[in-house]
Design a protein that fits this description.
By secondary structure, the protein is mainly alpha-helical. It folds into two domains: about 60 residues, 434 Repressor (Amino-terminal Domain) (Orthogonal Bundle), CATH 1.10.260.40; about 100 residues, no CATH class. The protein is rod-shaped, with a radius of gyration of 26 Å.
Length: about 160
């Protein structure tokens, strides 16, 4: 259950209107409406006032098992993307080797396609919440992906040049 739902339930259980609650915690009725509809979130001082008014802890207001469940689901999806990225990387390598050893340039198209798949799945292989947390570490992440891409592309180009 999210914060807005909890706030509305606490308010209605105490037979308060949005206006009554707004007056008691010194905010506008519009702010209460935004919080209850999930279009906004209160500042810490307002959270403390709500907590004191309804005699609940701030943790009870904002903590939620749904957050943990959502993170677990995000990790499971990211794990599937990671496996797909590894499969694409293996396929790109295999197609490059086939192009080289069989001297057939048609296999290079499979290598290029698998490389594109690797890039897409590698980007999606990090759970969404971790991608948001890691924005300050985006440069090393991009560099590592670029190095792998450069290695794969150089292998593809080398193979094509050897055949031609």
């Amino acid at each position: 259950m999210d914060f807005g739902y909890k706030l509305k339930k606490l308010r209605t259980d105490c037979n308060m209107t949005q206006e009554d609650l707004a007056e008691r915690i010194f905010v506008t009725r519009t702010a209460i409406s935004k919080w209850e509809t999930g279009k906004g979130f209160p500042a810490i001082d307002s959270l403390m006032a709500i907590s004191k008014l309804f005699d609940v802890s701030i943790d009870d207001l904002i903590s939620d098992d749904d957050i943990r469940t959502k993170r677990l689901l995000d990790k499971a999806v990211a794990q599937k993307f990671y496996i797909c990225a590894l499969i694409c990387l293996a396929a790109a390598t295999l197609f490059s080797l086939l192009t080289y050893f069989l001297q057939n340039i048609c296999f290079s198209f499979g290598s290029i396609t698998a490389t594109a798949g690797y890039i897409v799945f590698a980007i999606l292989s990090k759970p969404k919440y971790k991608r948001m947390q890691a924005k300050k570490f985006i440069v090393p992440y991009v560099i590592s992906r670029a190095v792998i891409l450069a290695i794969i592309l150089s292998l593809i180009i080398y193979t094509i040049l050897q055949i031609a």
